[in-house]
């Protein structure tokens, strides 16, 4: 019984860890995308002003 519970706990722990990683990656990628888009916008604006 204890062994079975331990196995269940291991699976639960692995799944929860995986979910944490997925959530972290989603949040991190969202931040990264925002940073990249703002950088692209800044570069674009600078180019526009340099032509003026």
From TrEMBL:
This is Uncharacterized protein. The lineage of its organism: unclassified sequences, metagenomes, ecological metagenomes.
